[in-house]
Amino acid sequence: MARSNASLRGFGLVVTAILLADIVTKYLAETRLPRYVGVPVVGDFFQLRLVYNTGAAFGLSVGDYSRPVFMLLAIVALIILGSMVRTTRPGDGLRLYALASICAGATGNLIDRIRSHRGVVDFLDFTVGVFHWPTFNVADMAVTCGAAALALSLWSEGKQAPGGAAASPSPEVAPTAES
Predict the structure, then answer these.
(1) Is 122 a catalytic residue?
(2) Cβ atoms within 10 A of the Cβ of 65, count?
(3) Is 64 an annotated catalytic residue?
(4) Are 105 and 81 a contacting pair, CB within 8 Å?
(5) pLDDT in the model for residue 73
(6) 103-112, 129-138, 169-178: the lowest-pLDDT one
(7) 48 has which bridge partners?
(8) What percent of the chain has pLDDT over 70?
(9) What is the residue extent of each domain of the chain?
(10) Distance (Å, rounded) from C-alpha 10 to C-alpha 140?
(11) Distance separating the N- and C-terminal Cα atoms of the chain
(12) Could you report the per-residue pLDDT of 44-85, keeping only the tens digit for each?
């Protein structure tokens, strides 16, 4: 399915904006924040804390192979996402936004893995009482929001019949005297 120039421009604009925000904020974190020391923004609830994540989301790791494994996974994901962009229905802005967000986030974290053995730069740190959320970055937010938007887009598509009308529920089979 051919993408319109406006759709591709919008996709490119979202990717560029998120990627620039990710790169700039990571640069600022690395040049202005002390490593592993929280700088309170809103008390203990929200702090800026520079850490490096050699694994993936929520500290997932495959040991010494984490860097190449997660680099390869990001590249494969970007290829699959590119295919999804090409097959997205015209006018499905939510899906294009979702795919652009995920692509930008995956690219931002891939850049970190390529440029440094230290891992992905994370710096946004939240704590509520005794619950401490894993430190994250702009790319992580983009992937998370994009994944949620993609799920919503796919769910909405499933609610529509092939002709675009709302799908009707399958007819219920009435029990027979033999059941």
Answers:
(1) yes
(2) 10
(3) no
(4) no
(5) 96
(6) 169-178
(7) 39, 124
(8) 87
(9) 5-158
(10) 21
(11) 48
(12) 999 999 999 998 876 788 888 899 999 999 999 999 999 999
Euclidean distance between CA atoms 99 and 82, whole angstroms:
8
**What does the chain come to in residues?**
179
Tokens linked to 156: 């909405």
Give the tokens for residue 61: 């790791």
Q: What pLDDT score does 179 carry?
A: 46
Among 22, 112, 122, 125, the one annotated catalytic: 122
The pTM (predicted TM-score) of the whole model is 0.84
Residue 178: count other Cβ atoms within 10 Å of its Cβ: 4
Assign 175 a pLDDT band (cuts: 50, 70, 90): low
Count CB neighbours of 71 within 10 A: 14
8 Å CB contact between 94 and 151: no
Angle at the Cα of 107 (from 104 to 110), degrees rounded to 5? Answer: 155
Which tokens is 172 given? 């219920």
Segments in the chain forming alpha helices (H): 5-32, 66-87, 93-115, 138-158
Question: What single-letter DSSP state applies at residue 21?
Answer: H
